[in-house]
Task: structure prediction
Amino acid sequence: MKTHTFRLKPAQDLFDSIEAFVAEKRIEAGCVLSSVGSLTHATLRLANRSSESTDLAFFDSNYVQIQVAGATVGNVEAGEFQRVELLVDGEKGTMRAFREANMARLYLPLLEEHQEVTSGGIELRLTQRAPTVALSASFLLADGKALTIEPIDWQFEKP
Result:
């Protein structure tokens, strides 16, 4: 495995910068292992690389979750997901969760084989110098088993 490092200046677009770097270095496949920065808006993309669809789920399954510490979740646009739920410390459906959300869940009842979905913008309001963002997911598979993706943490430094 070869590791690359590069730095962005404030207000540079993260996605465009990664795409330009990948093109410049002629990288064919890769992943982001770590990052530090002042990210305040994000978009989630979910890709089902499997040849099988998930099972149809309506309530508490089939979601991608973004959880923050040292920040709150502001406006969340569902994009291609069906609905968004804002939570604060696991509490949902309250004005406190709406104003002080530290978690957003983006639900999709069915993820078809090879389907990719993208959220709209997700605003993060930084409240600490080094906030942490954790991504996780839970999906019901066609065989009735649950696929749970444990939280993956990223830490950012506020400018």
Q: What stands out?
A: The chain has one domain: 39-155. The CA atoms of residues 34 and 154 lie 7 Å apart. The chain has two helices and eleven strands. The first strand starts at residue 41 and ends at 42.
